[in-house]
Amino acid sequence: MTALRVLNSIFTITEFELRKLRHDYSQVFMRVIQPALWLLIFGEVFAKIRVLPNADANYLQFLTPGVLAQSVVFVAIFYGLMLVWERDMGLLHKLLSTPTPRYSIVVGKAFSAGVRSLFQAIVVLILALLIHVDLNITPLTVLGVLAIIVVSGMCFSSLSILLASLLRTRERMMGIGQAITMPLFFASSAIYPISVMPDWLKVLAQINPLSYIVDAMRALLVTGQFASLPMDLAAIVAATVIITTLASVSFSRIIS
Description:
Elements: H1 3-22, H2 26-31, H3 33-46, H4 59-76, H5 79-89, H6 91-96, H7 102-130, H8 139-167, H9 170-186, H10 199-206, H11 209-223, H12 229-250
């Protein structure tokens, strides 16, 4: 199959997935409730406490990229649950009966999850501006953040698809989604600097893709310090490629 046909297959799957969102915009606003609570309650309270030693940014500035990243995880990590539901309804078998390569299905669904994450992230950004969080908003920084969000959504939705191919039931997927979402969030630099963590947590944070996602968005939106940005981007892309490849290889297990 030529590269053009592969791309066409990927974008066809993506368009099909996004069509579901077009018929139900309410899920975008329902899923923004949790990030809003983090900013409006947790962020406002902790902004009054000195939790950032020797930092130029206030806590709401520091927290906003973390909440953006968390909103991406919240959308993407349950994507495998939808895949299990499609299998149980027979929709996945129909899709697999087409000549579309299975890796195109995985990449297309992962890409659609990344695009879905954009809508929620934009709402979170607007909310942050409404409560007067001082962010570095320029066309380049916004485009950079949106690109990171799409790739991050692909990363965590691919992880969810991989887990769905291994667990294969909705009950297990609900359990594992809830079990890994918050640990990923807390074992990252989303809500506190890695420097203040205990040593064992620092190790987990340094291998957690979410830490690199948060640091990259924080560099663009808050600090303007880009020295570590290339490493952050390389880590995000590498994690996405590895996890998407594993999900593609394991995908056939979901219907076995």
